[in-house]
Fold this sequence. Notes:
Elements lengths: L5 E6 L2 E6 H10 L15 E5 L2 E2 L7 E8 L2 E10 L4 H4 L11 E6 L20 E3 L8 H26 L3 H29 L2 H13 L5 H10 L2 H7 L3 H7 L15 H14 L3 H10 L11 H7 L3 H4 L2 H12 L6 H18 L6 H6 L7 H9 L12 H10 L3
Parallel strand pairs: 6-7, 7-8
Antiparallel strand pairs: 1-2, 3-5, 4-5, 5-6
Amino acid sequence: MxxxxxAEFQGLYGPYTVSEILVQKIWMxxxxxxxxxxxxxxxxxQVRHPGEWNRIGGPDFKRARLVIDGKDxxxxxxxxxxxxxxxxxxxxxxxxxxxxVLHVVLxxxxxxxxxxxxxxxxxxxxxxxxxxxxxxxxxxxxxDLLSAAFDERxxxxxxxxxxxxxxxxxxxxxxxxxxxxxxxxxxxxxxxxKLEWDEACHQTAMEGLGYRANRGxxxxxxxxxxxxxxxxxxxxxxxxxxxVPDTWARDGLRPAxxxxxxxxxxxxxxxxxxxxxxxxxxxxxxxxGIDEAPGDTEALLELAPAxxxxxxxxxxxxxxxxxxxxxxxxxxxxxxLVCDGFLPLAAAGGEQGLxxxxxxWYTGDAPESVRxxxxxxxxxxGRTISQSNGWTxxxxxxxxx
Length: 401
């Protein structure tokens, strides 16, 4: 198999790279808006099944099932950065690519780009992903890198932390957590640029409930069923699953993360709190602002011993869980929604002084090895400095460095 293509882009903290493999994952997991999907020449496309990911040579996906311009189409799918890559790689003269029925590219074709053709001369429709991504491309790249790199790098991270004095270890992780916070707010702001507050909250909640394996299908459901439609129609969870068939990951999921279970939770949430995004904004707007700016490690650590008590985090967590979400989502999944979704959205919407809340909020879903790193490196001690979201995020971001 040929080595995957890599492209470099300018991001929030400088250049970042994207591999064609990431674009393949976006296609495979449905992490793009599929409603209204069309080819470059305006033919409607429905993705019944993205195909089986092929990692051993030949087309990237085998045996995909599509509907193009109203006609059922089965065959292979090839993924590239650009239309011209089809010709650069010589696929048009390769027998292995005879059955390709769709060319998926990240960037729009240039005006003078010729259409891709098979060895038989059949023209292949082209679909462009860039303007249909749910997030900025940098966020996809960051999420993918975190997932792939953590297990590999955690040992080296712990070794490097233990080489530093305790104070410097904590300063290092605070600095990394600040970058993670800035990224989350930046990406939330981009979502708010595309959507009104209610729909941005709606998509954020459904994406978070999808966890990693089902983010794409959940976002597809959220786009097809805006919040007001869910409020008015009150569909069953099974019908929402059926709205985007053949895209859900079920194998290896804990029962609590099964898509029907998560959708039932959200439908119950919406049933009892139909105007929940407004409640979320109202609730967070009432929190006391904190002047300490992100990056001021000294001030942040001075807040540590009594922050949760002085700023009533247990009460605020219960208020969000009950007043906003009707108690519909139990456990660490809701905690993760607060940290990864609600607080960055509120900050992107203009609320000030939320970074300390985000930093000292409770830890949501995270690998158990993160806790082990924090404990072994003596970052947290369970007394003056407890495990919290910020320390966890500092560790997670450190795998990128």
